[in-house]
Write a structure and sequence with these properties.
2 copies of one chain form a homodimer. Chain A is α+β, with helices and mostly antiparallel strands. The first copy, chain A, folds into 2 domains: about 1-285 and about 425-465, 2-methylcitrate dehydratase PrpD, CATH 1.10.4100; about 290-410, 2-methylcitrate dehydratase PrpD (60s Ribosomal Protein L30, Chain: A), CATH 3.30.1330. Chain A is built from 20 helices and 7 strands. Chain A has helices at about 1-10, 20-40, 45-55, 75-80, 95-105, 120-135, 145-165, 165-170, 175-190, 195-205, 220-240, 255-260, 295-310, 325-335, 340-345, 350-360, 370, 375-380, 425-440, 440-455; strands at about 110-115, 210, 285, 320-325, 385, 395-400, 405-410. In chain A, helix 9 (about 175-190) runs antiparallel to helix 10. At the A-B interface, helix 3, helix 5, helix 10, strand 2 and helix 11 of A face helix 3, helix 5, helix 10, strand 2 and helix 11 of B. Strand 2 of chain A pairs antiparallel with strand 2 of chain B.
Chain lengths: ~475, ~475
Amino acid sequence: MATLALATWATNLTFTNLTTPVIDAAVKSVYNWAGCAIGGFAQDAPQIALNTSVDLGFGGPPTSSILGLNGSTSAGLRLGYGSRNADGAFADAQLAAFVNGIASHVDDYDDTHLATVIHPTGVVASALLAIVEAESRNRTISGADFLTAFVAGVEAELKLGLSVYPEHYDVGWHITSTTGSIGAAVAVGKILGLDVDHLRHAIGIASTQVIGMQAFFGSMTKSFHIGRATQGGMLAALLARNGYTSSLTALEDQYGWLHVVSTRENASANFAELGKTWEIESNTFKPYPCGIVMHPIIDGCIQLRTQALSDGKDVNSVKSIDLRVNPEVLVLTGQTDPQTGLAGKFSIFHAAAVGLLYGEATPAQFTDQVVQNETVVSMRKLVNVTTDDSVSEDQAHVSIVFDDGSTLEKYVEHAIGSLENPLTVEELKTKFMDQVSRQIGSARAEKAYSAFTNIGNMTDVGKLRTLF
Amino acid sequence: MATLALATWATNLTFTNLTTPVIDAAVKSVYNWAGCAIGGFAQDAPQIALNTSVDLGFGGPPTSSILGLNGSTSAGLRLGYGSRNADGAFADAQLAAFVNGIASHVDDYDDTHLATVIHPTGVVASALLAIVEAESRNRTISGADFLTAFVAGVEAELKLGLSVYPEHYDVGWHITSTTGSIGAAVAVGKILGLDVDHLRHAIGIASTQVIGMQAFFGSMTKSFHIGRATQGGMLAALLARNGYTSSLTALEDQYGWLHVVSTRENASANFAELGKTWEIESNTFKPYPCGIVMHPIIDGCIQLRTQALSDGKDVNSVKSIDLRVNPEVLVLTGQTDPQTGLAGKFSIFHAAAVGLLYGEATPAQFTDQVVQNETVVSMRKLVNVTTDDSVSEDQAHVSIVFDDGSTLEKYVEHAIGSLENPLTVEELKTKFMDQVSRQIGSARAEKAYSAFTNIGNMTDVGKLRTLF
């Protein structure tokens, strides 16, 4: 009775059940998400999604924040930003959830649970903030309640992910969104105070919306997965609250989620471990805005560039770049000739080239312009990749050969941002400030940082958006 | 290049390509859908969906009809029915598409393409009418253009269904909605005038939203599948029009639709036959509002009741009812003890009981009240089912034994509503009038029948809703 077990656990979870490391991981996850959602709004994907929706639907009570929205855009003006929404809340909950979900993932800069390759926070937090802001018209919801519901949703999607990974991922599903809609339903259902049976129905309505395949990596549709799963999970909880019926055994039914979307024989959910081991403690944060399996290569190339410069060598005199990586790296990021910034985020060739040429990999290295830059294109053509099962996904071997025949080599044992080599609190702040300042200026970015890092102590999360 | 082939065919299709039988089948499909959507609105599912959405999101420009909405409901009042929407258009396109999609399927009374078990019209027509009404603010769209786009969408989903049936269905997907979002995207994309590449992106965004599993049959979530797929396909076309990018090879990509959702080895799309054979010509219409595999049993039981009565026998003196059916019948409709009207639609036991007791199977026999009625419950307990591979899905053997030991038997070779035994135009009208009169009265039902049967001749389909 997996569905019952999950609904019962989530319904009973209280803030006092959360350990200090869990709360710490949750807060980091939330502010890393907020930075991604604000900074990512600069991309086309969330803005097209917003404009499309404002034109044709999605314009209910303007209760909820679109985090990165700048009031001077045409959609912002049509939503009445700055007039009826002076407090910064300017879209209905469905639309805010959709757009924040897209924006938080579009840069491929969000968090990663490495054991499942799920990026857990985008779907859950985007749904939760939108609904908390909408609910705050009628009641106050504390930061403790917000974090409790958030952890419930994240643990739900991650335990579910563990139940079907890697088979489910290997067949081609985008596991972040396929599990995410269920996580969002659990989180929203919990904040709405659903009882166990209503939450089971919510899980059912969420689970029958299976969003996302890997064919869309490198296009705007990748982040659409997150936006749509966010919205679908939230809608599921809202419908269930109003008595919409579903299966009470949606996850374990012969024709339900576990069996239909997983190719694992006799798949069953790992819910006995809920609340005993906390998956959120294993959440990690990306230093580079691109597919995570490219990160060790970027580390290696940046280090080799530094070494080359200190040796008095010119990286423009490199004649070949040889990478040895885990086989999955080529499966996911094998695009040899990307044409857009989004496609560049899934090209190991591009990753190596910008690491060597720029010595960094920030959003600026994944624009259409840089991806199409002639020097970058030439450098990409020098990259050769071999795969090796003995190299894990957070490891890489990089060697470069210069025109004069000299070589430099680097072995990266654990990429920056991995569990063994995590971003520090200072690095997380730098990342947040970089993303958010670009979009809303550094003064507001500082306020936003304070607001999101302090979320656990708030008495009314509905007011969060007024703080920055 | 399946995605390219589909997009190219759909883009090039014109009304002059449609043969008379195709147009005839399309018009029947549309008015049968309209009857279902108006009549089905009486159910809880579409009304909860509407109320939930009005409360939290979905309230953009009120351009589009919710077909069965009665202005005196609270949601109708909140949407401003009767004041700002005196012409009968009263929700934004997203919401109208969602609710009409649910309403058109909730009674399990819609159409069926028997070769794939797809109910093809609900998703495509619900999306199309909503978007045509929204577009009609700016331009007129003729009935010929409406039907051309409709046929494009229906052929897309049905050819796709043939490409993956039965494996895709057997694993547990609800094939109507999993193919339907793609059909809706094709239809809406065509009416929006997308070029081939934009339509390929639309197909991509639609195909990554895989909605619906069989675990939810017998609950409101079954019709949610249709509403959400309707909306997802429409949103896909709207996003693509605005430049949202996706995969250009979404269907055939190694990690795209055909391979991820089908367990068929080397699945490929049957698109070479597009425009050569027309699947819509094989569309059929249901005489009974329930799972189609139960229809031959209902036929048989109704006939046996008639025979019993003419023989002077009392059906209340039946002591056992023996059914011999195709094995799939028990897989899909094996609920022995349903508790709700929606669950009764998937209980072969209930179907046999009401056929014998009432001599008919209309929406009135699938209410919660009738499903829980003691006499019906007792009769259900007398039903024994055996399965037989040699009996096809539109066939059934029924035999009843009376208390006095006498028996009656019936073999149904082709159920009413099957390809070999289709509903006549008169029967379709009777069905439409029955469904629609219950919801909006017989005078408006007559006008609605005229409006929908004449849709092919309209110069401005945006005005259709003003005709009744």
